[in-house]
Amino acid sequence: MNIENIAKLDQKALKIIADANDEISDMYEEWKKEKREILKSFQADIKKYENILQEQMKKEIENYQKEIIKKYEENLYSFKF
């Protein structure tokens, strides 16, 4: 092989490496974009479930308060003056 052929092979190898680097870079950017979208989706789901849990807790507290009030009212009415 002469130097010209070696130089051409080197140029082809560098082109292949550059193309591969570009493709890897594109894939990485796409992965970052998909990761952000997945995280946003998870955050939205978490917020939705937080709201559901807060609503359930509020109902439970209200029910508990009603039970306590009812219990004390029953005790109050049971007293005979």
Features:
81 residues, mainly alpha, 1 helix, rod-shaped
Question: Can you give a write-up of this model?
Answer:
By secondary structure, the protein is mostly helical. It has one helix and no strands.
Please indicate the percent range of residues in DSSP E strands (runs of 2 or more): under 5%
Low-confidence stretches: none
Structural class: mainly alpha
Query: Quick one: how many beta strands?
Result: 0
Largest sheet: none
Distance between the termini: 118 Å
User: Fraction of residues in helices?
Assistant: over 70%
* CA-based gyration radius: 35 Å
- Helices and strands, in order, run as H
What is the helix tally?
1
**What is the overall shape?**
rod-shaped
Mean pLDDT: 92
Question: How would you summarize this macromolecular structure in one to three sentences?
Answer:
The protein has one helix and no strands. It has 81 residues and is mostly helical.
Describe the secondary structure blueprint for this structure:
Elements: H1 3-78
